[in-house]
Amino acid sequence: MQENISVTDSYSTGNAAQAMLEKLLQIYDVKTLVAQLNGVGENHWSAAILKRALANDSAWHRLSEKEFAHLQTLLPKPPAHHPHYAFRFIDLFAGIGGIRRGFESIGGQCVFTSEWNKHAVRTYKANHYCDPATHHFNEDIRDITLSHKEGVSG
């Protein structure tokens, strides 16, 4: 087994590794990520090791550059026309993103998504790039419409 090699010693890369792992956990379960990391073959990973590294904000100390690069490939890529979009749209009751796929194929940029089903959310996040600077993901439309609040008519 190779010695654990830090991706880098910079604070910003540590934050990037942590943010990437947190984003991946919105898509994949711990077991899947552990299998992916072990598949790279650089270090031994278990669910306990990954959870501990995440809880201690120390995953970037343990991730090798090859593991880091492999994990990045698991995230969806921006569309080819990013960041030059023809129009913006929102994706309500999104499911796994069929409407989004169509709008993106003609140059659209999704800026808001709402979907409540946890399995659909994972699939959606695995398939569609969401720019953290311009896209908001909402899981319960009632948080936007406020229809679950007393005194607000629906």
Automatic annotation (TrEMBL):
Keywords carried by this UniProt record: Methyltransferase, Restriction system, Transferase
Domain DNA methylase N-terminal: residue ranges: 19-75
GO molecular function terms attached to this record: DNA (cytosine-5-)-methyltransferase activity
Domain of life: Bacteria
Family matches, as Pfam families: DNA_meth_N, DNA_methylase
A GO BP entry: DNA restriction-modification system
UniProt KW Transferase keyword: yes
Enzyme Commission no: 2.1.1.37
Catalytic activity: a 2'-deoxycytidine in DNA + S-adenosyl-L-methionine = a 5-methyl-2'-deoxycytidine in DNA + S-adenosyl-L-homocysteine + H(+)
Keyword tRNA processing: no
The protein's name in its UniProt record: DNA-cytosine methyltransferase
Taxon lineage: Bacteria, Pseudomonadati, Pseudomonadota, Gammaproteobacteria, Enterobacterales
